[in-house]
Amino acid sequence: MYRGGLDRFKKAQALEPFSVQQSGSGAKSVPAAVKVQPAPLVPPQSSHLGPSQSHHAQQSGGSSIAGQEAAGAPRPAGTQFGGGQSTWQPPDWAIEPRPGVYYLEVMKDGNAIDRINLDKKRHIFGRQVPACEIVLDHQSVSRQHAAVVPHKNGRLETCLMFDA
Predict the structure, then answer these.
(1) CB contact at 8 A, 102 and 158
(2) Which domains are delineated in the chain?
(3) Is the pTM of the predicted complex or chain greater than 0.85?
(4) Angle of CA points 14, 39, 3, to nearest 5°
(5) What would the 3-class secondary structure string for the chain be?
(6) What's the farthest any 2 CA atoms get from each other in the chain?
(7) CB under 8 Å to 134, separation ≥6 — which residues?
(8) Closest by CA position to 128, among listed 141, 147, 115, 140
(9) Who's near 46: CB < 8 A, 6+ residues apart?
(10) Using one digit for the tens of pLDDT, what is the confidence trace for 111-131?
(11) 61 Rama class: left (phi>0) / alpha (psi -120 to 50) / beta
(12) Contact between 134 and 118 (Cβ < 8 Å)
């Protein structure tokens, strides 16, 4: 019963704890052809956007709240966007950055596969789809894990949320 937890603990001590390795002997192996896709996000039926949220939806190139992109610019599978409806407020020193100044590149095997623009006063990362702007699907990530906030001195600050 506790064997799986012990294996995860040992894996966390490895140099690359999030790497996936297939072993043919002794361990349960998943066939390479089986791929698990996350459930598609469905936009809410009734939209209750405030003025600042509707302004962001227009500013971000027409992307919908649930992460479905406009038909003209499909985003590669893998980056999942949430509703961003968290009640967490950024500190007083946070600023609204100019569009295109701050961004994150999603890397896979040394290649940039996606670019996430950080064009709001806060971006919350976590597992909770309705509350987080960027959804991370991993058991070690909290519901609302961290916020990336642009500082008025030009730096990007990471604020840990300490949410389970």
Answers:
(1) no
(2) 82-164 (2.60.200.20)
(3) no
(4) 35
(5) CCHHHHHHHHHHCCCCCCCCCCCCCCCCCCCCCCCCCCCCCCCCCCCCCCHHHHHHHHHCCCCCCCCCCCCCCCCCCCCEECCCCCCCCCCCCECCCCCCCCEEEEEECCEEEEEEECCCCCEEEECCCCCCCEECCCCCCCCCCEEEEEECCCCEEEEECCCC
(6) 57
(7) 79, 80, 81, 82, 116, 123, 124, 125
(8) 141
(9) none
(10) 999 998 988 999 999 998 888
(11) left
(12) no
Report the DSSP pairing between strands 156-160 and 134-135. unpaired
Q: How far apart (Å, rounded) are the C-alpha atoms in residues 144 and 136?
A: 10
Chain centroid to CA 153: how far?
25
pLDDT bin (cut points 50, 70, 90) of residue 78 is: low
Strand 134-135 versus strand 123-126 pairing type? parallel
Tokens of residue 46, six digits = 């009734």
Q: Would the pLDDT of 134 be above 60? A: yes
Residue 136 makes CB contacts below 8 A (sequence gap 6+) with 125, 126, 127, 145
Mean pLDDT of 92-120: 91
